[in-house]
Amino acid sequence: MNKMKVSAIQLNLAFDNPDQNENKIEKKIKKTMETFQPDTIVLPEMWNVSFFPDDIQKNADQEGKRSRAFLSRLSKMYQVNIVGGTVATVYDDQYYNSSYQFDREGKLVHTYHKVHLFSPSKEQNKFTSGHQLGIFELDGVKVGIATCYDLRFVEWIRLLALADIEILFIPAAWPNPRASHWEILLQARAIENQLFVVGVNSVGTTDKLTFCGHSLIVDPFGEKLATSKNEEVILNATLDLKKRKVTKEQINVFQDRRPDLYKQYRM
Ligand SMILES: O=C(O)CCC(=O)C(=O)O
């Protein structure tokens, strides 16, 4: 595959209401399939309940079964890959911020549990952290996923880049007043790792947070392919996968790295 068409769905999620959120997402997916016909659709963080109800036990998805069935049905129906944002899940009485990915046949190809839990919102008091890198393939293209706060952890994202992913998906529930951090970090991760970055945020408010939107699709040179403000919107972009090679021919940071030295200072 030389090009991948991506639709990133920036949503104003209903708080603690999976029914309403599923209805809305289904309509948005239908719309982008009828207009842009993407290869891959990307959703934001914790789209079943928004980020995040105090009584998470009420609507956390039991082993992700409901969300997986929903995403699988849509990916199969429209024959589209879905990077399913994240949902609040519960496995054996432990809560996770979980992400499920589906191929065009509706098959689950990968599961990622958010690794860096957002301590300013006390996410670690409710949720259990994942411990595995998010790497998988869509249409034969090696891609990666990390969730929201994970974006700040340059070491974690570098591991994905060193595994040679071509596209990094970042579902988020990134709040004000840090829209500039979100945008700058998405661009920085794209530039320093020479890969495509698709950052998909929410808009709207909860009792505690206002999400800043500004979802963004960036190419390996750091150029913005699609931008948004803070309203509900579908961002569309065609990722020309040759751009990574072209960028590396100009500046090959992966060839010029000095891991032999970095090892000495590892902390
Ligand atoms: O890092 C930030 O500023 C926001 C992170 C966040 O909201 C999250 O991980 O849910």
From TrEMBL:
Keywords: Hydrolase. Residues 4-241 form the CN hydrolase domain. SUPFAM superfamilies: Carbon-nitrogen hydrolase (SSF56317). PROSITE patterns: CN_HYDROLASE. Pfam families: CN_hydrolase. InterPro entries: C-N_Hydrolase, C-N_Hydrolase_sf. The keyword Transmembrane helix does not apply. GO terms for molecular function: hydrolase activity. It comes from the Bacteria. The keyword Glycoprotein does not apply. PANTHER family: DEAMINATED GLUTATHIONE AMIDASE (PTHR23088:SF27), NITRILASE-RELATED (PTHR23088). Belongs to the carbon-nitrogen hydrolase superfamily. NIT1/NIT2 family. This is Carbon-nitrogen family hydrolase. It comes from Marinilactibacillus psychrotolerans.
